[in-house]
Amino acid sequence: MGVLDIVPPGVLTGDNVRKLFEYAKEHKFAIPNVTSSSVVNAVLEAARDIKAPIIIQVSQGGAAFFAGKGLPNDKQQASIAGAIAAAHHVRTVAKEYGVPVVLHSDHCAKKLLPWFDGMLKADEEYYAQHKEPLFSSHMLDLSEEPKEENIAICAQYFKRMAPLGLWLEMEIGITGGEEDGVDNTGVDNSRLYTQPQDIWDVYTALSQISPNFSIAAAFGNVHGVYKPGNVHLHPELLNKHQLYAEEKLGGKKKKPLFLVFHGGSGSTKEEIKTAVQNGVVKMNVDTDTQWAYLCGIRDFIQNKSGYLQTQVGNPEGADKPNKKYYDPRVWVREGEKTLVQRVKEACTDLGNVDRL
Ligand SMILES: [Zn+2]
Question: What is the pLDDT of residue 177?
Answer without folding.
Answer: 73
